[in-house]
Amino acid sequence: MKRTKKTITLGSGKLYILEFTDKIPENEVIETEENLIGYIQGGAELEYKPEFYTAEDDLGKAKKTIITKEEVKLKSGIMTWNGETIKKLSATGRVTEDKEKGIRTVKIGGIDNNDNKSYIIHFVHEDAVDGDVRVTIVGKNTAGYTLSFAKDKETVIDAEFEATPSDEEGTLVILQEEIDKVTP
Length: 184
Prior knowledge:
Radius of gyration: 20 Å
Number of strands: 10
Distance between the termini: 18 Å
Largest sheet: 8 strands, antiparallel
């Protein structure tokens, strides 16, 4: 049995990030080891916030409400990371590697270094019994981050990606869930 209205979703998943060029590729292209941003802690959270405008007459006899704005954010804590991860979370990040010295250097800052890149952020919740769920947005990290180095706690980067339209329809989020296949 796959996902129904009675399915209870439990657990976290994997987070993949790759640069967005002009189209979101198939899941098989996204879900590779190379695109895995790192292992996450605290799961992932998708937030959808619409804004509405309501026009109403003084007597309350005529009323009309329209949607005026939508905002989508995908949040996750990235527990395993490196300099390449940091670069994808920093619009002004640059990475260089000195193979002879064995040093990767990440430089962050300088508005002139803004790469203006957008990324495909793709979260996969795997469930062998009830079916997988995939959440995909296009956007960039808009909340910054804090690297906390404590003696008794792992360093987790809390990233917050704000969605931008990924197609000509204005799609902000793609949610895919596995359902039972119909056989003819």
